[in-house]
Amino acid sequence: MKKVLFVCMGNICRSPSAEAVMNHFIKVKGLEDKIVTDSAGTIAYHEGEPADPRMQRHAMKRGYELNSIARKIKYEDFDKFDYIVAMDKENYNDLSNMDPDGIYSHKISMMTDYSSNGYNEVPDPYYGGSEGFELVLDILEDSVEGLINKIQKDLNGK
What we know:
Distance between the termini: 16 Å
Radius of gyration: 14 Å
Order of helices and strands: EHEHHEHEH
CATH architecture: 3-Layer(aba) Sandwich
Low-confidence stretches: none
Helix content: 40-55%
Structural class: alpha/beta
Number of helices: 5
Strand content: 5-15%
Strand order of the largest sheet: 2-1-3-4
């Protein structure tokens, strides 16, 4: 069983969306017994809140249900999860700073590391319009395919 943690700043837009998209693809591919997911934020500002209603609406149009509740990442998560996937460079740096000795650096990656669409991060849609939420979902759908392929290779020892 591989465990994946998606991380953005507040855990109300990008990381819960990544979790929902990933869970959809896991179900479609019949991998429920091989991969589990969660999401967290680098700050606790929205802790205990559901995903942003705008993000929920855009995700629902594509058949994704954002049902996670925001939480802040904890140091214990580095031990618990096999993959810790940051949405942008600031999130990546925050995660790296939580692990100053680099013990878990092999677990930390960027969501777009698995993308084929040319983006280098998943932009925060919080202060923008509808197109920002749609772009996030476009990037996530593309990146999740690559991430699942990577996990399947790891599971098969390749």
